Predict the 3D structure of the following.
Amino acid sequence: MAETGAGMELFRYRGVEKCVLEMIESGALRPGDRAPSLRSLSSRLKVSVATVSQAYVELERRGVVEARPRSGFFVRPQARRSATAPSKAAPATTSNTVNRGALIRMVLDTVGREDILPFGVATTAEELLPVKQLARVLGGVVRSAQRRAVNYGTVIGDPELRRQIAFRAIDSGARFEPEGALVTSGALEALYIAVRAVTRPGDTVAIASPSYYCFLQLLENLGLRSIEIPSCPECGVDPAELETTLDRFDVKACILSLNFNNPDGSLTPEDAKRRIVSALAKRRIPCIEDDVYGDLYFGAARPRTLKSYDEEGLVLHCSSFSKTLAPGFRVGWLAPGAFFEKAFEIKATTNVSTAMPTQLAVAEYLRIGQYDRHLRRLRGALHEQMELMRACVVEHFPPETKITKPTGGSALWLELPGLDSIRFFYEAKALGVGVAPGVVFSARDKYNSFVRLSYGSLWTTASEEGVRLLGALAARQLAGARD
Amino acid sequence: MAETGAGMELFRYRGVEKCVLEMIESGALRPGDRAPSLRSLSSRLKVSVATVSQAYVELERRGVVEARPRSGFFVRPQARRSATAPSKAAPATTSNTVNRGALIRMVLDTVGREDILPFGVATTAEELLPVKQLARVLGGVVRSAQRRAVNYGTVIGDPELRRQIAFRAIDSGARFEPEGALVTSGALEALYIAVRAVTRPGDTVAIASPSYYCFLQLLENLGLRSIEIPSCPECGVDPAELETTLDRFDVKACILSLNFNNPDGSLTPEDAKRRIVSALAKRRIPCIEDDVYGDLYFGAARPRTLKSYDEEGLVLHCSSFSKTLAPGFRVGWLAPGAFFEKAFEIKATTNVSTAMPTQLAVAEYLRIGQYDRHLRRLRGALHEQMELMRACVVEHFPPETKITKPTGGSALWLELPGLDSIRFFYEAKALGVGVAPGVVFSARDKYNSFVRLSYGSLWTTASEEGVRLLGALAARQLAGARD
C-alpha cells in the first residue's frame, strides 16, 4: 500500500495550499496581509509544521506569498483577483443536424500523448486510482474463477456485479433490481444503447448546452438531430426552459447529465430534477441520464439521480466505473427501465456481452468493501486539485476570464470574451498543453470563446507551468483581438 | 501444465476411436468384420496398447464394436450407415425485412445453462481452451503493465495486439498493416461496426442462406433488409448465383463467412472466393467477411480469406479469439480496408475502446508463441469430436437423416425431411438437450426441417446419450408426421 502513504502526504500538503488559497480568494487574506504562521496552520489543520512549511515554499514559488526575513509569509499584491462564473447560452430556436466529428477527433487525438499536458481530456489521474489493488484483485479473480473469466458471460452481465450496482444505486436515491441493470463496456456504450433503444434516425433529441462532446458525436453518428437547452454553470438545467422546448419541438428523447454536467460542472438542484422527470413523464418522453460524475461530489451528500425520481420507467440511467476506478476496464452499466428488452437486444447484437475478467474484478473490488473509502479519498483529491487549478487560472489568466467553481466532477469551464477557442487549442497544443475548445460542446457555434480545463490529472509544477503558459497565450490572443 | 498431459491422453484415446470409426464409415471395415488387433493399432497409431484397449472398451460401450472372447473386437451389424449431405436452398426471389429476434432469443436462452447439453450453441469446450495459461498470462500482464491495464487504451487498440493480428493475417494470405486493424469487443462487434460503416437503415444486404443467426439479428436490429444467396453444404457460395443476385437487387453490402459457414460448415473453394471478391469489386459493393472459423480447419492448409483477394480495400475482415482462445475476453478485430475512418468513428462512439486487460493478455499470449501449438491441438480435438458426434448421429438418427461432413468449424447441419425444428427444439430442451432449430438461420421459412448440432463441447457419455435421445425424438416426430 505504498501508494496510500505517498498519496496521503501529498494530500496533506495540498490541503494547506488549498486552505491559504481559499482565504485569499474569500478575502479573508488580502494582498499585503501576513499569512497565518506555520505553527497556527499546523495546529489548525492538524498537520506537521514541516508540511505547512513545504506548502508555503510552494506557494512562494508560485508567487502567491512572499517570505520576509524573520517576519513570516505575506500575501503578494497580485495574488487575489475576482472570478465570476461564465455566462449561460440563450435558448435554441431551431434543432440541428450534428456535425462536430472532425473537430472532436482533433481533440481526442491528444488523448494518451505523454508529450501533452492532459487538461484537454476528462480522465482521472492514475495516481488517484487504486491501480495496484485492482491489479491484485483482477489477478486473484482470474486465478480463482478461471472458467468464468474465459467463458462467455451472459448478455446482461455478471450477477454479483449487477447486485453491487443495484445496491449502490440506493445511495443516489434510486431503486432497481439487479435484473434491471445491464453491464456495458463503459458508460458511453450504455448511452449508445439507450439512445438506440428510444430513437430512430432523423429523430430530435434534447440535450443540455453545453454538453459532453461524445453526446454530439453519438447523435451525429446515429443520424439524429439535437435541440439544445441552456445549462447554467451555477444552477444547471431550468425545468421551465426544458418544458418550453418540449412544447415547441417534436423531441423523442432527452440526454441529461445533471450531476456535474461536463463541461460546465453544473449541478441541477433536486427540486428541478424532480420537475424535469415529471415534465418528461407527462409527455412520455424517455430521459437518458448520464451520471458518471455523480459519485465525485465535493459537498456533504451525494446528489440524487434522475432515476431516483422516475416512477414510470422512462429514465434510462447510464454510468460507469471509468472516472472512479479504471477507465481501461470498460465496465459501465445501463438501468433502462421500461426499455429493458430493446436494450438487451441492442447489447446482444452489438458485442454479445461485456468482457468477463474486468467485470469479475470490479465485482470483487466492490464486494470487499474498499470502494467507498477510495471514493472519499478521490473526492478529496479532486476537490483540492480543482481549487489549485482554479487559483492558478485566476492568477495567470487575463482579468476578464470568467471561471466556474464546480462542486463536483473533473473540469473547469472558462469564458474568455473575444477568444477563438480553436486557434487557442492549436496554439496550446504547440506549447505542449492540451485544452478542450468550447466549440466541441455544442452543435451550434456557441462556445468559441470558452475553454474546458480538466483537473483530473495530478497537480504538479508542470501543471502550474502549463496553466501559466495558457494564461499568457490567452492574454496575447485577447490583446490581438482588441487591436 | 497439468491440462496438457490430461488433454494429450484424451486426444490419443480419441485418435484411436476416430481411426476405427473412419474405417467403418469408409467401408474398409464392414459389419461383422474383425477390427484391427490392439497390437496392430498400437504400432500403427504409435500409442500404447492400453490406450487402444481403452478406445475399444469405449467403442464397445457405444455399440460400435463387440468383444468376442479370445477373438478380439468385431464391428457390430448396425455400425455403418450411409450419410449424405443436406440439400441446398433455392435462390431467393425477393428481399426480406428480418424478423427472427424472438426465436433467436429463445435459442440463446439456453446458453450457459448447466442443465442443458450445449449442442445448441457454437462455443468451444473450455476443456479445449488454454484456460490456466490464459489466466496466468492475464495475471502476469496486469501485474507488469498495471497502468496500461487500468488506463484508457486508444480507440484502435493495443499496438502489440494489432501487430500480432496483422502478422497472423499473412497465414490466410492477407496483408494489412497493424494500423489497418481495429481491436473490437469480439467478432460480432467487428461485424456490427462493419455493417454500420457501409449501410444505412432500409438498405439491402446480401447474406448466405443459411447464415449465422446473429447476422440476421444484427440486420433486424439495424433496420436492414436481407437477400439470401444459397450456400451449398459441400461447395459454399456459388459466385454465379451471387452475381445474379447483385444484378437483380440493389445490394449495398454483403456479409459472407466462406470458411466453414455457420451452420452448414461449408468451405467455398479458393477460385470461387476470388471470383466473389472480383464480382463485388466490379460493382463497388463492400464485402463484410466473418472469418471466426478460418483457423479451425481440419485439412492440411489454412483456407484463405476474402481479404487476401481484396485489392480495392472493399473487404471488411472480421474475426476474433472467441472460438479459439477465450470467448469471455471479448477480443476481436476488424480490418475495414477503405472504411477505416468511418469504422473508427463508430467504435469511438459505441464504447470508446476495448477493455485493456484482456487485450494485453491476448497480445502476450500470442507474443510468447503458444498460440499455434494450441491451435493444432484444438483443430485435432474438434476434428475428432466432429467424427464422434457424426458417427453417433448416423447411428441413432432415423435413416432419412442427411448430415454434413464439415472440413472445419464447430457444427453439423442436419436435414430431416418432415421435421418441425421449432417443436424439436422445445421437446429436446425438455429432455435436457440443446439444439439450434434450422429456422433461425434464415429470414425466410426455409430450414424448418433442419437442425444444427455443435460439436464444440467435449464428447462424453452424456453427449452420446444426448444424441441418442435426439435420434429417438426425431424418429418419433417423423413417424408422427407420416401418420
Summary: Residues 371-396 of chain A form the longest helix (26 residues). Chain A touches chain B through 61 residues (CB under 8 Å).
